[in-house]
Design goal:
The complex is a heterodimer of chains A (599) and B (291).
Chain A lengths: L1 H35 L5 H8 L1 E5 L23 H4 L6 E4 L8 E4 L9 E5 L5 E3 L1 H4 L10 E9 L8 E8 L2 E5 L5 E3 L1 H4 L5 E9 L8 E8 L27 E8 L2 E4 L11 E8 L8 E7 L4 E5 L4 E3 L1 H4 L10 E5 L8 E5 L2 E2 L3 E2 L3 E5 L10 E3 L1 H4 L7 E7 L8 E6 L5 E5 L1 H8 L3 H4 L11 E2 L7 E5 L5 E3 L11 E8 L8 E7 L4 E7 L4 E8 L11 E6 L2 E6 L8 E2 L4 E6 L4 E7 L5 E4 L7 E5 L3
Parallel strand pairs in A: 2-36, 26-27, 33-40
Antiparallel strand pairs in A: 1-32, 2-3, 3-4, 4-5, 6-7, 7-8, 7-10, 8-9, 10-11, 11-12, 12-13, 14-15, 15-16, 16-17, 18-19, 19-22, 20-21, 22-23, 24-25, 25-28, 28-29, 30-31, 31-32, 33-37, 34-35, 34-38, 38-39
Chain B lengths: L13 H9 L6 H17 L5 H23 L6 H13 E2 L4 H16 L1 E2 L2 E2 L3 H12 L5 E2 L8 H17 L3 H22 L3 H5 L5 H10 L10 H20 L5 H28 L1 H10 L1
Antiparallel strand pairs in B: 1-4, 2-3
Helix pairs in contact in B: 2-4, 2-7, 3-4, 3-5, 4-5, 4-6, 5-6, 6-12, 8-11, 11-12
Classes of the chains: A mainly beta (599), B mainly alpha (291).
């Protein structure tokens, strides 16, 4: 009897302990986070984290506020949710003056995009209107969703592909003095509802090709709906989105659509994509993050693409993919892939993914495991744009993630109605008229951004609040660039229905850096796809020139490496898209090296 | 969710005996069915977050049942109930982490042994475990609240098979009352909120409800005995769920069962105790002396 009583008491205590476990875990986690992410003044941030970011938007002469589109009135009750994308940022040195410029898109009908020319004195000036790439959101041609830059004709000047819900546009850069619309000659379709595109030379012929991922089906005109049955037919398994396009550059300004022929045939709802030689095979692979479904990894065998997402481990659990970024987070010469998703306490905990190559797998059979939780970069709210970059020049790649979906009424949430409909059968979820009205409610609004510092030992720590990133706009695109040639990565953040923000980075001077500006000769002149493997102080890090990544974003083509203190650089190995390998030695920190591909 | 049982041992004929040999022991029917749901769901839509997490939930559940059953009842318990609890946790809990699956299973099984009234556990174990996780660890856990996909054939298989099994277990009336009540009350909710009626119906077309209807509200261990009582409880769950829904609670059905289930059982126990007190010899003799 006594034994039974004792057992009952012990099991009851065990039960109470179980009930208390989540609170204990939460307390441990929050105390650790609070100490690293409390607000600090600049000097304290510099001392503790090695850098701080300062919002210099106004001083830089930037006053851009994104405007959302107003779609068909039949979508009025859920307009804030449907018209929730379009703010983008891409970095380009369009006039080849050696200073990065910024292009941002607007999305209201009749609104104007902006091209901020870097004036070299800390300010920017909008020149989009005079150069002919501002007035691109006319009601009959749709509105902008993003932009990616690449020199498709190898004339030395970056050309502009404008991603739209509407008529996609290709603009030729006329030596930095203006832009000419060449969409018709290029053979682009008349209408795509896309949110992502990426320039890359998939066949290594020295000409940049273009991938475009559709979101809504291309036969849907969002301003003149024939039917309200245009929503995803499932929250996690939707395959009724827009098609994907792969435009092969034929030269002479002409492109041929070859997606199906080369193995890219999917109608998942693409939101983000990026390309990199993930398997080290010499051919760039394509990673696509899809909303309402699994991610897709298209391996490039040099002749065609093979979708291997499930086999590689990245395409198993369906989530709401919204960003793709590559980063060598362990300094081991391999790319990890970060894909942002949705996390909302108590409602939907998808968690962001940090896909890290598994030990013992390599080449075209590389498999990935998700280490986002272990490394502390899993919960980012309703995450959108993400980018890797060494923000404090300590020699490890950090991660900047923006977030927030719809910020309206602070106190009222749409989440309940969202989940109500998201659980339904396709006949219900797929029809916009079945969706309850938002009535001014927020959906994961007013979220704090995440600036995760890589400690070099397998953990990331969020320091956003303490280094000056305190905005809570509905963040979409993040683009990184050394805007003022100071040897530090600055941050451009595009916000939906919100202001474009420019954060200037001040880094502790002890931490050193080196940058590379690559230019192809046999390879595409933009050098997109070129990889630099830098070896210093017995560390190795790989980076590549990207033709678009994150969410609706493109970083500067110049590669920036932080080196930490007392850096001794052994070498930089450049692997060009043509296959040529070039080794650079006698490099010193604190310099930007201009490197041309050997002829 | 615990196992379903049929409670009417009766003499059987030779023919019936041989039939029984061919048929599955009733205790194994629900585990087989829920495994089928898991397999159909996964191979049609890939529902599992990961095999490892589901296996962790099942293994934890079974291990806890074995240990606690041995401690409290000095015998190895039948594991069908623990298996169903584990697999339900594996399907319904959604978290990128591993620990919530183990903790939820532990909470569910332990609650059966700790939270008892008159020797009877009053919460459906998986309902308790999942609700406890939602109350206490909402930053790490959500439950399956999205559809599995659009393969209606797979859903039809689940519905037909589930209905047949529940019919065989003589609990089909509970499902019918709940489903009819849900649909009727969805009209009322739509009228009150002004939202499209289909948006109010939408949740019941998702997989969470298939598990809820076939396994949670019909659990014999945590439902009242009388058929009428079961119908009243099923309606009450739907009615309380409506109020949770009007309060915009995402996990309305789980919370409704969490409150209604134990309340109904406690009322039944109270009524039973009064009835047995009324029928006890003391009362009878008192009545007799009065007469």
């Amino acid at each position: 009897m006594k034994k039974a009583l004792l057992a009952r008491i012990l099991v009851s205590l065990f039960f109470v302990g179980l009930l208390m476990t989540p609170a204990i875990l939460r307390w441990r986690f929050s105390s650790r986070t609070a100490s690293s992410n409390s607000r600090l003044d600049r000097q304290a941030a510099l001392a503790r984290h090695g850098f701080y970011l300062e919002d210099v938007t106004h001083d830089a002469g930037i006053d851009f506020v994104h405007q959302a589109p107003t779609l068909d009135p039949k979508l009025a009750q859920i307009m804030p949710e449907v018209a929730s994308m379009g703010a983008s940022a891409s970095i380009v040195d369009f006039d080849r003056d050696g200073w990065p410029d910024i292009y941002v898109t607007n999305s209201a009908e009749g609104s104007r995009n902006r091209l901020y020319r870097n004036m070299h004195d800390g300010t920017f000036k909008d020149v989009a209107g005079e150069l002919g790439i501002a007035d691109v959101n006319r009601p009959d041609t749709g509105v902008s969703m993003g932009a990616v830059w690449g020199d498709y004709d190898n004339d030395g000047y970056e050309d502009l592909f404008l991603i739209k819900w509407g008529r996609p546009e290709l603009f030729h850069n006329d030596h930095g003095k203006g832009f000419t619309r060449v969409s018709v000659r290029a053979g682009l379709p008349s209408w795509i509802n896309a949110n992502t595109a990426v320039w890359f030379d998939y066949d290594g012929d020295g000409l940049l090709d273009l991938f475009v991922g559709g979101y809504y089906p291309e036969d849907v005109d969002l301003w003149h709906l024939k039917s309200t049955r245009m929503m995803p037919d499932s929250f996690e398994y939707a395959k009724n989105g827009g098609r994907k396009y792969l435009f092969h550059n034929l030269g002479g300004g002409k492109f041929e659509e070859v997606s199906a022929k080369l193995g890219i045939d999917s109608r998942r709802w693409a939101l983000a994509s990026s390309a990199a030689d993930l398997g080290g095979t010499g051919h760039p692979d394509l990673f696509v993050a899809n909303d309402y479904g699994v991610s897709e990894l298209y391996r490039n065998d040099g002749k065609r693409f093979h979708e291997v997402g499930e086999q590689a481990g990245v395409g198993f659990a369906p989530k709401s993919g919204m960003s793709v970024s590559f980063g060598d987070v362990f300094n081991q010469g391999k790319y990890a892939v970060y894909v942002s998703n949705i996390s909302e306490d108590g409602t939907l905990i998808q968690g962001n993914n940090l896909w890290v190559p598994k030990e013992g797998t390599e080449g075209s059979s590389t498999q990935y495991e998700n280490l986002a939780r272990d490394m502390g970069v899993e919960l980012g709210g309703w995450s959108f744009g993400s980018q890797f970059g060494d923000l404090n020049n300590d020699g490890t790649l950090d991660l900047y993630v923006t977030n927030g979906y719809v910020s309206l009424d602070h106190k009222r949430s749409y989440w309940y109605d969202f989940t109500k409909i998201a659980g339904g059968n396709s006949a219900i979820i797929g029809d916009a008229k079945d969706w309850p009205a938002m009535d001014g409610r927020s959906l994961s609004g007013y979220q704090q951004k995440h600036v995760w510092l890589n400690d070099g030992a397998g953990k990331f720590v969020d320091v956003a609040q303490s280094i000056g990133v305190t905005d809570t706009y509905d963040g979409r695109a993040i683009a990184l660039a050394d805007l003022w040639n100071t040897g530090a990565l600055d941050v451009v953040e595009a916000n939906q229905r919100g202001p474009l923000l420019v954060y200037k980075n001040t880094v502790s001077p002890e931490n050193q850096w080196i940058e590379f500006a690559l230019e192809g000769t046999k390879s595409n002149r933009s050098a997109i796809g070129a990889q630099v493997t830098l070896s210093w102080n017995d560390k190795t890090q790989i980076q590549q020139v990207s033709g678009g990544g994150g969410f609706s974003a493109q970083n500067d083509r110049r590669l920036h490496f932080g080196l930490g203190r007392n850096a001794h650089i052994q070498s930089a190995m450049v692997r060009w898209p043509s296959g040529k390998v070039q080794t650079l030695v006698d490099l010193v920190p604190g310099k930007l090296y201009k490197v041309e591909e050997p002829k | 969710m615990t196992q379903h049982t049929i409670v009417q041992p009766a003499p059987v004929s030779k023919a019936a005996q041989s039939k029984r040999w061919l048929s599955l022991d009733n205790r194994f029917v629900p585990p087989v069915f829920i495994t089928l749901i898991l397999l159909v769901g996964h191979f049609s839509f890939g529902i599992l977050e990961s095999y490892q997490r589901t296996l962790l939930a099942i293994a934890t559940s079974i291990l806890a049942e074995l240990i606690l059953g041995r401690i409290f009842f000095h015998q190895w318990p039948h594991l069908a109930s623990a298996y169903i609890t584990g697999i339900s946790v594996g399907i319904l809990v959604r978290s990128p982490a591993f620990w919530p699956y183990a903790l939820c299973s532990l909470l569910a099984i332990t609650s059966k042994y700790v939270l008892r009234v008159n020797g009877r556990h009053i919460w459906n174990p998986s309902n308790f475990g999942i609700c406890a996780m939602l109350f206490l660890a909402s930053d790490s856990v959500a439950t399956l609240s999205i559809q599995w996909g659009n393969n209606l054939w797979a859903m039809l298989v689940i519905w037909l098979l589930g209905s047949a099994i529940i019919w065989r277990l003589r609990r089909f009336h509970i499902c019918v009352v709940y489903v009819v009540s849900f649909f009727a009350l969805s009209f009322l909710r739509s009228w009150i909120t002004g939202d499209p009626w289909l948006s109010e119906v939408s949740p019941i077309t998702g997989p969470e409800y298939q598990l809820f209807i076939f396994f949670m509200i019909t659990d014999p261990k945590t439902t009242v005995k009388s058929k009428l009582g079961q119908c009243v409880v099923a309606f009450s769950v739907a009615a309380v769920e409506m109020f949770f829904r009007l309060d915009q609670s995402i996990y309305a059905p789980l919370y409704a069962l969490f409150f209604v289930g134990p309340t109904a059982l406690l009322i039944e126990m109270w009524r039973d105790s009064r009835r047995s007190a009324a029928n006890s010899p003391t009362t009878l003799s008192a009545d007799a002396s009065r007469s």
